[in-house]
Amino acid sequence: MQTVLLPLADPAAEPRAEALLSAGELVALPTETVYGLAGDSTLGGAVAAIFEAKGRPRFNPLICHVSGLDMAERIAVFDDLARSLAARFWPGPLTLVLPAAAASPVHPLAMAGLSTVALRMPRGVVARLAGRLGRPIVAPSANPSGRVTGTSAEAVARGLSGRIPLILDGGPSPVGIESTILRPEAGRLVLLRAGALPRAAIEAATGRAVEGPEAGAAIAAPGGLASHYAPAGRVRLGATSVEPGEFVVAFGPKRPEGLERAAAIVNLSPRGDLKEAAANLFAALSAFDSADVERIAVAPIPEEGLGEAINDRLRRAAAPR
């Protein structure tokens, strides 16, 4: 299959993507968080094609992207807390895991056999296309399963070229890290995946503590695999010194000891800004995702704010495979 890369600004881009999605084909699309591999959530063939193209385990559910709350309420059961979260944070990088509605049109394969469905209203082209189709769009990150997430059209093409017909190029992802996944239930807020919306922002808006993540729980949301986001080489976290020949992911102005021994260096944010670091994280890992890069050392990154999500992705990238 030939993969076409088309600028999002091209007038033909969105109509072409809409036609492909309507026909049950897949399209890689930019969102504010990362690039997604999009398909019609109501078509079993399209959902199955996403799992096949990514090599994704079928017990790992997908996020359904909606054009608004009206569409979301046809898919899932919202209580007052869930509705208030959607009103406050949609469109944006928050995914809600809710009970699936009895007449939900989402194909069961997208929910991986669960009784819940993951929903998000993104900014931009994915929400527009969902509105035109009148159906939610499933769009997991546009990369082979378990590998580094794509935050540019070029990165997507390296992983999926030849597997999908179209990639829309919207430039680098402005946020650069996936959505926060939250399960509101019985007045509780349970964090299933740290992400681009910090825990503190949710707590400030709701006046409720955010619990979790739940250690050792069964996978109830996307991105729950222990090993994920991984480059080819071994990743060493919390590196305050550099071993000879290591490729270094630095953070902030402080230089790790022995930095002159590094094979190459990329700094997520020379000024120590976590928002900038999140935007640059996957691009940095992708730059070192090569068979000749055996060892990657990552400097310590604070856990507060977006640091929780950054460290979550790094721990999964460093996990045994």
From TrEMBL:
Cellular location(s): Cytoplasm
Boundaries of every YrdC-like domain copy: 11-197
Source domain of life: Bacteria
EC identifiers of the protein: 2.7.7.87
Keyword NAD: no
Broad enzyme group: transferase
Catalytic activity: L-threonine + hydrogencarbonate + ATP = L-threonylcarbamoyladenylate + diphosphate + H2O
Keywords, ordered alphabetically: ATP-binding, Cytoplasm, Nucleotide-binding, Nucleotidyltransferase, Transferase, tRNA processing
InterPro entries: DHBP_synth_RibB-like_a/b_dom (IPR017945), Sua5-like_dom (IPR006070), Sua5/YwlC_C (IPR038385), Sua5_C (IPR005145), T(6)A37_SUA5 (IPR010923), TC-AMP_synthase_SUA5 (IPR050156)
Function: Required for the formation of a threonylcarbamoyl group on adenosine at position 37 (t(6)A37) in tRNAs that read codons beginning with adenine.
Family: Belongs to the SUA5 family.
Protein name: Threonylcarbamoyl-AMP synthase
Originating organism: Jiella sonneratiae
